[in-house]
Amino acid sequence: MLVIAVYSTPHGRMVLVTDEDLVGRSFVDQEDGYILMVPESIYSGKLVEEDEAALEISRADIIVATGEKAVGLVVGLGLASPESVISIRGVPHVQVYKLSSDSL
């Protein structure tokens, strides 16, 4: 299962999608200087199956995906390349921003 949180921002619809077991956790990679936080206050949302998550992601302008399942879904939908995924303490993470000609 995945957790989806949807927010309206000045830059469009933002969807946070994460593996259920990562909500409320933090990961620190001191060597590379990365901190990945998945706080419940921001990431708590609706628990969904992959098909519903894919629908929400397809309607997003901004996507923040964390975890094997979530990042795999975003990459599988062709919205991010595997090369754009970073790993923090073994947890994959990717951010996607859809650009339109209006935003350039």
Strand order of the largest sheet: 5-1-2-6-8-7
CATH architectural category:
2-Layer Sandwich
Low-confidence stretches: none
CATH topology: uncharacterized conserved protein from methanopyrus kandleri fold like
Top CATH class: Alpha Beta
Count of separate DSSP helical elements? 3
Structurally, the number of domains stands at 1
pLDDT averaged residue by residue: 94
What is the percentage of strand-forming residues? 35-45%
The best one-word shape is globular
* N-to-C order of helices and strands: EEEEHEHEHEE
Give me the CATH superfamily.
uncharacterized conserved protein from methanopyrus kandleri domain like
Which helices and strands appear, and what pairs or packs with what?
Layout: E1 2-9, E2 12-19, E3 25-29, E4 34-38, H1 40-43, E5 46-48, H2 50-58, E6 62-66, H3 68-76, E7 86-88, E8 91-97
Parallel strand pairs: 2-6
Antiparallel strand pairs: 1-2, 1-5, 3-4, 6-8, 7-8
Task: Provide a descriptive summary of the structure in words.
With 104 residues, the protein is α+β, with helices and mostly antiparallel strands. It has one domain: uncharacterized conserved protein from methanopyrus kandleri domain like (uncharacterized conserved protein from methanopyrus kandleri fold like, 2-Layer Sandwich). 21% of the residues lie in helices and 42% in strands. It has three helices and eight strands. It has helices at residues 40-43, 50-58, 68-76, and strands at 2-9, 12-19, 25-29, 34-38, 46-48, 62-66, 86-88, 91-97. β1 (2-9) and β2 (12-19) form a beta hairpin. The longest helix is centred in the middle third of the chain and has 9 residues, at 50-58. The radius of gyration is 13 Å and the shape is globular.
